[in-house]
Design brief:
about 240 residues; about 5% strand; mainly alpha; two-stranded antiparallel sheet
Length: about 240
């Protein structure tokens, strides 16, 4: 453990992650609406500060279109596999009734106890949501976690198992853990569930060497969740 902490890339990665986590936490506790812009600024500029000290470029951390065709194909394949299953799980969660055990209420709090029916509709101002989720949420988070953190941690743990054309090891897993724990800066236990999509984002980063695919998939997942939330309405609410 001590040898690991002597690693400059690991220390730098954990320090910048901790700085971003604390900045978001303080913003949320003091002026809640500031948490999101603080997160965006921290995720974009903390890695930039570290990169400039070493004379590195955005492309060194996956900000490139060099593999865009492969990124788009992989994103399409993941969506075809995952979104139907996610829809089924989302529907099942909406059918749960009150009286769940405490742990289940923590995990399923956004959906439980609200028997719902599906009426397809987009949320209001969906175009603005697209811009927000792509450029304010997905891109900064993917640049910081998959672009910067996963790359720096890969210097500490360069090896791993070869899975579906990507090398996935401790750096891949630790990045997903830090991503999930980082979401607890705005504390709700169910937010730890982002660990699972983080595995897909990290896989895309390792497979193509860019953050384009993970950014697109991240935005699609968030937007699809908004679509489902708008479409699953309470059973007593009729849609015309």
């Amino acid at each position: 453990m001590r040898r690991l902490l002597d690693s400059a890339p690991l220390r730098e990665a954990l320090l910048l992650w901790a700085c971003s986590f604390l900045a978001i936490l303080v913003a949320h506790v003091t002026v809640a609406w500031l948490a999101k812009p603080v997160a965006t600024v921290a995720f974009l500029y903390l890695p930039l500060w570290a990169m400039r000290r070493r004379g590195e470029d955005y492309q060194d951390y996956g900000v490139t279109f060099r593999a865009w065709r492969q990124d788009v194909r992989l994103v399409g394949a993941v969506c075809l596999l995952v979104l139907p299953l996610f829809t089924l799980c989302f529907w099942a969660a909406t059918q749960l009734r009150p009286g769940l055990p405490g742990w289940a209420q923590l995990v399923l709090a956004p959906l439980s106890g609200q028997g719902r029916a599906f009426h397809a509709r987009l949320p209001d101002d969906f175009g603005l949501w697209v811009v927000d989720q792509l450029f304010v949420v997905a891109l900064p988070e993917e640049f910081f976690f998959r672009g910067y953190l996963q790359a720096r941690l890969s210097l500490v743990w360069p090896s791993g198992a070869r899975i579906l054309g990507a090398t996935l090891g401790p750096a891949f897993l630790l990045t997903a853990v830090l991503f999930a724990v980082g979401h607890l800066a705005v504390f709700h236990a169910w937010r730890l569930a982002v660990f699972f999509p983080a595995l897909l984002f990290g896989y895309l980063r390792a497979r193509t060497g860019t953050v384009l695919g993970s950014t697109l998939l991240h935005a699609i997942f968030n937007l699809y969740s908004l679509f489902l939330e708008a479409s699953f309405t309470p059973l007593w609410q009729r849609q015309h």
